[in-house]
Amino acid sequence: MLQTGRPRMQTKRTIFPNKVLPYALLAPQIAITVVFFLWPAGQAVVSSFLREDPFGLASTFVWFENYTRLFEDPAYVDSLRVTAAFAIAVTFCSMTFALLLAVAVNRLIRLGGVYTTLLVWPYAVAPVVAGVLWWFLFNPTIGILPYLLSFMGVHWNHRINGNHAMIMLVVAASWKQISYNFLFFVAGLQSIPRSLIEAAAIDGAGPMKRFWTIIFPLLSPTTFFLLIINVNYAMFDTFSIVDATTGGGPAGATNILVFKVFADGILGLNIGSSAAQSVILMMIVIALTFVQFRYVERRVQY
Amino acid sequence: MATIAIENVRKTYPGGIEVIKGLDLSIAAGELVVLVGPSGCGKSTLLRMIAGLESITAGEIAIGGRVVNNLEPAERDIAMVFQNYALYPHMSVRGNLEYGLKNRGTPRAEIDARVKEAARILEIEPFLDRKPRQLSGGQRQRVAMGRAIVRKPQAFLFDEPLSNLDAKLRGHMRVEIRRLQRTLGTTLVYVTHDQLEAMTLADKLVVMNGGAIEQQGSPLELYGDPQTLFVAGFMGSPGMNLIDVAQLRAAGATLPDAVPAGTGVIGIRPEDVFLEAGRVDGPAITLPARIEAVEMVGAESLAYAAVGGLSQSVVLRIPGAWTGHADTAADLHLPLTRLHCFSKETGRKVPLSAPALAA
Lengths: 302, 359
Ligand SMILES: Nc1ncnc2c1ncn2[C@@H]1O[C@H](COP(=O)(O)OP(=O)(O)OP(=O)(O)O)[C@@H](O)[C@H]1O
Ligand SMILES: [Mg+2]
Hints:
CATH topology of chain A: MetI-like fold
Number of domains of chain B: 2
Bound molecules: adenosine-5'-triphosphate, magnesium ion
CATH superfamily of the largest domain in chain B: P-loop containing nucleotide triphosphate hydrolases
Low-confidence stretches of chain B: none
Largest interface: A-B, 20 and 24 residues
Low-confidence stretches of chain A: 1-9
Distance between the termini of chain B: 51 Å
Oligomer: heterodimer
Mean pLDDT of chain B: 89
Largest sheet of chain A: 2 strands, antiparallel
Distance between the termini of chain A: 42 Å
Radius of gyration of chain B: 24 Å
CATH class of the largest domain in chain B: Alpha Beta
CATH architecture of the largest domain in chain B: 3-Layer(aba) Sandwich
Structural class of chain A: mainly alpha
CATH superfamily of chain A: MetI-like
């Protein structure tokens, strides 16, 4: 028998005496993290304190000027507002639809598996493709949706109408995320014991009441988890959808933060400002992740 | 308090398996009916059909004279206690008790009064503000019963409510359920696996087998006068000794004339088999046997005796601790008056004729 020197330990644990091996095994992952994450992040932080001259030949240290300028810039404040609206709309739409679908599928006994498989497909579609797909569907000249909308008296044109552009973006971004949310909601629903629902039915609660007083509260860990994931998704993973459909326009109506970083830095070549923006984004991610971890730690709330 | 009338009820699950096969049962108001039977015989299914959680394929169920086939569970005015208790984990004990009343729009003052009373009866007042996960198994069980009694329903339906408790607590709760049911006077249908619960609780005991009722009656009736081989073997632990007559004859034993023709199996309770001839009055069958093993169960001992030619050993129940040696030869005395005769083909009882006994 293996003696570990800790008699109370229940699990068997093998101890390797080699001190170098663990580092060697970790090295590839550490290298990837450093090269592709820590180093660029550090670069961004450094750049955010610098200002380059118009020819990109020299740079001067300007302390927080890039940041103060950002918050004085109406375009940036506008982008913050647009991002918030976009994130809330996408999170709300994708989670609501996913929950509706999950509840519907959960009621089925036989065909549940088939629907689940079909509903997961959109998740496999690349964001760019999703963007292009919806761009075609909403295309004012050849798209089917504007054609149908015209019968309702709506003259769809997301190229000139900011609201239209935003709606299209929200639809495209939510559509892709519904699959993911759906899977989690189905799993959450299936972990609620049937007898609880039956007890509530005997206790005189109709289907709606059962949903709001029993099912929804018991789903709250799943819902909270998805909330964070979806805000994260809407703020950071939707770049290619914006890029493929509206390009941030018209007139900045869909210029969400991630896209603005790209537009200002790569297209506008304002490296200092763009770096400051990415540092702010980074801090938002860190904050969201922190909230999530804090929550996961004490997750059994009821 | 209400009657429950079950008439020719059938249940076929999707896939065509008939689980309840034309079952009739009538339950008087205030009666405590216990359903027992082997696993999978359809006890839970029947209970769930009464509750409205399972559709009724054919037949009719009436509660308090009202046919409930097409009513929602909530409209049937019944309360159910589940084996896993099914307490709402996100609500406090008080919340759990109130939920059914709130859904029915009971006035606040009335809700408070009823919750208070139920909590007093079940002695769960100290836990009213705790969540179910902060309670022990026994306390959860009480809360589950509390949730049933606050509603003051027409009938209670309990599905193995005590099977998750330890033996001692089970005994305690059994007594309490009986007392509670007597006090409230509410009709109760109770499903259990436990022989002791079945015998001690029931006004009427119903033995089910394969989706049909084998026999119903008072516990003592079923124990003392089983009408079928199944009931004879099922009731009691250990169950009745069932001895194949053909095997007995092949071994050279002769049966007295009192055993009616057509008897394929004779049955006798372990406590009715005696080792000493002196304790038997009246005619008896005597079988030479060998005691193979003895189990001391405290107040009594169970002896297993092998009889030449029989494939199964005969069990004897002997009061007190047995002092003899295992692996000794002994004669078993089976008093004729205690014998139950069954037909092997139908599995039903063949009545002993009184004149034959006297002869
Ligand atoms: N939803 C279902 N679909 C198909 N068959 C089912 C379903 N529920 C139960 N059955 C079958 O019906 C039969 C009776 O089940 P039931 O739960 O009523 O048994 P039970 O007498 O309560 O058994 P136990 O004592 O083990 O609880 C079983 O053979 C079971 O497999
Ligand atoms: Mg059962």
